[in-house]
Amino acid sequence: MSEVIIGIDLGTTQSAVAIVDSGFPILLADEQGRSLTPSAVWYGAEGEIEVGHEALRRSGVDRVITSVKSLIGRRADEADGALLADGRLATAAGPLFPEEVSAEILRKLKGIAEDRLETGVVKAVVTVPAYFHDGQRAATKRAGELAGLEVVRILSEPTAAALSYGLDRLGDSSRVAVFDLGGGTFDVSILEMREGVFEVSATSGDTRLGGDDFDEALARFAARKLGVELEAIDALEKVAWVTEGKRVKHVLSDEEDAVFRIPFTGEVPVFREDFLRLMEPFLNRMESCSRRAMLDAGVEASDLEAVVMVGGSSRIPAVKERVREVFEKEPDLSQHPDEAIARGAAIQAGILAGTVREVLLLDVTPLSLGIETMGGLMNVLITRNTTIPCKAGEMFTNAIDGQTSMKVRVLQGERELARDNWELGAFEVPFESDRRGQARVGVEFRIDADGILSVLARDVATGKDTVIEVGSAAVDVTEAKVEKMVSESVEFAFEDMSARVFEEARMKADELLPAVGVALEQAGALLDESEIKEIKEARDRVELAIKDREVAALKSAVEKLDEATESLAALLVQKATAALFSSPQD
Amino acid sequence: MGELERVMREASLSCHPDSGGDEVEFQKVRQAGALLKEPSARLKTALKIGGVSYGERGGVPGEVMDYFSPVAGILKKVDDFTNERRRALSGLGKAVLDIRIPGLKTELEGLIQKLGTLEATMIARFPEFDARGWEQSGEEMAEVFRGLIFVSKWLGQLREANGKIFEALLGG
């Protein structure tokens, strides 16, 4: 028997482990027969650790870490306060990096596999969202190592789902889209499958969009109705609200209405239409990513044979409806939404172990890779959706006489300005000292099959190669630097708060006041009289507050005007959207 | 293109590291495939193989140059739109900017269509070069080559701009 490689779906809310057995991918269940493990970890004060169902049982009583995937490979400044300044997470066992928490989940899954297979397991394929950047992929790999696993491949989730979908359609030639909406991340990929070769043409997504957002939106909706400030209540209590949001969301997948209940606080009836309205901005982002992927792949909805939906959140009727609209076909629901990715990971594991033949995967890098050039611009070296493994190079020279090195910043992302992209790291490229423009150093960027970058610098004069470490995440931020950053921000925070509040409200007012005029002219006829009256009154109040320089009054008046013009704005956006998606001949 | 795709698939299958191939070999195959797919790269390779010397900065077909200002103009308009929209502080402020969308879209699509036609006309000249022989067609090939470079760059930028508009609109 060849060596065992397991396939792991390390999800935001739940995880699973699978293997290929006599050509078929199967999920491995724990002793209780459960094949899905909640991605939850509990740390006790005495050093105890519980993972999965056991950890989840403590929620509501004690702090349980969930959705750690949304933090992995991220810097503190991107985590909305969920991480300490050094990128670690506060736990009962002291500060830990998110990958250390993820490692506990992986260790649990490894244990389940070893119990089922009655053999030791050391190798694994682990899935990540297609849209994970280098730092997040590398951190996921580290999590595997911490759990005692050699991660032989980092695989994109929608690609894994496509493998699972395509395994029994190997004879077919077709082009499909995979729409993967999980608990915390969203991906959409376009693939071509031909005679066992699965080639990804384009991928797009959002690593911060998933079922968790809908739970929270429902919790906010109910809180607003009950007059509760969700931000003001303590963390454990908030968990109860969000958990109730999740329950209501599940009910609304089958029923037309549900009741949001918080004991001793109140009840709120929630209808499907309410939920649909809350979902609208999220649905729009999904649509945007889907259209971006089709555009990048050079296909139209009619060119696609199927749109395969996976991920727990693909059960929501509103999501299915939007997918049907955007891809112009009935979504393919043949894959088990919670299991397809683990099955796909197992198939890739089989390919690498040599047990699955006749199948090959050609994946792409989801984000463009480049370096910062003059003027703070991003110079792209490897464009997004390039098939991996791949490489690209750039020549550097010295700008002044006798210079012996230069600093290169490596960036990942699609924005034009360097600072808007994710910085993977910066390094010094050494030269042999020479006259200006004489030194030559070639820098090679290589993306391996895991989508992880390595950099090599070669001094052309000496032929000497240097492998450059591209540091990721915020691990190298020193304590002193962090302290300075924190103290500075505190200082600024207390500096004349009211002046800042006034200025902010004033800026918003300056934008809204003329906009009201233009918008009423364009779409005012579609509103009824009471709505127009409300808008005009709100506008008058804003103007008055500006004249009186009343900070609190201006802030609330601007907020009122913002609310009052919501449906007017929606009308204009609707008009623009209709124009955008009408065909050219209309 | 069916033939090219079939050959590429077989080559990819045999030299991908996952099926026991060599990574460097795989990258070479991918690069070759990309080269064959891109008309300007094909022409450049033909010029190289034909041993034709030509100036990198020489003439560009006049009908290509005519598009220089229209392309730059619309790209600027789209940039202004997305920047202003990103900076907008209120829902209504964004919505008012969206009034520009239909106009931008019409302009973009019109240009994309015209450039597509122009690209096709230039590609249609390839057989003519082949028949006459690459050595004899050198200067003309170089001119078409430079024209194709511009057109494909512009098409890429216009499509990107098109994408940016709906991202701005749907991204909220």
Describe the structure.
The complex is a heterodimer of chains A (586) and B (172). Chain A contains 14 helices and 26 strands. Chain A has 586 residues and is α+β, with helices and mostly antiparallel strands. Chain A folds into three domains: 5-209 and 280-364, Nucleotidyltransferase, domain 5; 367-468, Substrate Binding Domain Of DNAk, Chain A, domain 1 (Sandwich), CATH 2.60.34; 497-581, Substrate Binding Domain Of Dnak, Chain:A, Domain 2 (Up-down Bundle), CATH 1.20.1270. In chain A, the strands form seven sheets. In chain A, strands 1, 2, 3, 4, 8 and 9 form a six-stranded mixed beta sheet that branches. In chain A, strands 15-10-11-12-16 form a five-stranded mixed beta sheet, sandwiched between helices. A four-stranded antiparallel beta sheet of chain A has the order 19-18-22-23, with no helix packed on it. In chain A, β5 (40-43) and β6 (49-51) form a beta hairpin. The longest helix of chain A has 27 residues, at 497-523. With 172 residues, chain B is mainly α. Chain B has a domain at 55-170. Chain B contains nine helices and no strands. Chain B has helices at residues 2-15, 23-37, 39-49, 62-65, 68-87, 91-97, 101-123, 126-132, 134-170. In chain B, α7 (101-123) packs antiparallel against α9 (134-170). The two termini of chain B are 40 Å apart. The model of chain B has no long low-confidence stretch (mean pLDDT 86). The chains are: A alpha+beta (586), B mainly alpha (172).
Structure described in brief:
The complex is a heterodimer of chains A (586) and B (172). Chain A is of the alpha+beta class and 586 residues long. Chain A has 14 helices and 26 strands.
